[in-house]
Design a protein that fits this description.
It is globular, with a radius of gyration of 22 Å. It has 433 residues and is of the alpha/beta class. It has helices spanning 53-69, 80-93, 108-111, 119-124, 134-139, 174-184, 203-213, 230-241, 255-263, 278-281, 323-333, 336-346, 353-356, 365-370, 382-398, 404-421; strands spanning 4-5, 44-50, 72-78, 100-104, 142-143, 146-147, 150-156, 158-162, 192-196, 267-271, 294-298, 309-315. The protein folds into 2 domains: 35-154 and 310-370, D-Maltodextrin-Binding Protein, domain 2 (3-Layer(aba) Sandwich), CATH 3.40.190; 158-307 and 380-433, D-Maltodextrin-Binding Protein, domain 2 (3-Layer(aba) Sandwich). The protein is built from 16 helices and 12 strands. The protein has a 5-stranded mixed beta sheet, with helices on both faces.
Length: 433
Amino acid sequence: MKRLIAIVLALVMVLGMTACGGSGSAPAAETPKAEGGLPYAGKTLTVLYMSGVYADAARAMVPEFEAATGAKVEVVDYPYLTLHEKALLDLTSGTGSYDVIDVASQWDGEFAPFLEPLTDYIARDNYDMSVWIDNVLANCGDWQGTIIGIPNASTPQTFAYRTDLLPNGIPDTWEEYREALAKVNDPANGLYGVTVSELSGQLGGVFDYVLWSMGGNWADEDWNVTIDCPETRAALEHLYALKDVSDPANLAWGVDESIQAFLDGKAAVCETWPSLGIVQNGDNPEKSKIVGKWALDVLPAEKTGLTLLSAWDVAIPAGSDNKDLAWEWVKMYTSYDMQNKFYDDHGILSPRKAFWEQEKMASQKAVRDALDTANMWWRIPASVEADSMINTIVGAYLSDQIDLEEAVKQLDEALTAALKNSPPEAGIKNYNH
């Protein structure tokens, strides 16, 4: 059954939350008023976001927040591939350079010991946690039963496609998908079947959503590595087959290059996060050659229908000296009105249930439904090493440096080593299996 989504929606990248450590100190019951009745006059809040739409949204909120609190706000941003390093260094050193950090959910377990539990703030302000989509909160914000971050963005991976070339949308199986791409692939005229974000750091996520949809996974619930399986081989072979219907340079392309190729009319499908350029520019004749000829669709369901979840939450580092002020920022940034504004102005999809119940979101039911099951890889310290090695190994296979069996062998060894180097805490189960 086709699940065509002919809409212009916004999607966001690539996942975060945490819990455990932090000072655990209770928030002040009441903040004394400063001069002029503004509670935080003279204070400076420093917030850290991923470059792009999240940082843009944060900067857009600064004037309203400063007017309400009297504080000054500095927004610092880094690209995704740099953000993890910058945030982790500050957290582990206890420097306290940042008062708020936007966390990708795959970093949860690694960041957990250094983030402030939000339990007391939630209780003090009667902050309603039931407003969030359950599956999103479980993957982003709730770490082992403790809330240490509030979800602020979430989306399941979807594909952008050319409606004039694939009028029935994305097929239901990967085999049918490859066949459809082959039919429209026309390199002689500058058109390829697909463009994929295969740059190292992004390729791992591509492998994951194919693997999961086929019923495979990294490990079982007890962290026994299960990557050496038929599904892994099928996923790798699928990605290799896409080389025949994509630009020869695609293996070196990231999100920007993939999106640009699609906007330039050089690919029938774009496998990347559409909100990072397609949604904003697809119908802009000054930036797109496919105006009125594109839409979004969910991935081939294959065996499980699972897709990749991108989720982020705003958290407060335990080393911050401005925790009460930081909590005020978190509340405003994740408020219903602000989340709606972020969608209208920046294309950020909210994890709030009520957001999806609005008339303007009615045509996006398939995307909303996917958020109830979308998967995220491990949210433990071993996740970062595991994802890095998957990127390297899959890239080596696609570039013919190693063969299929060697790739599977290396994946098994890499995941085993990652778990040995950073064992999960006792009692933590792998629910992504």
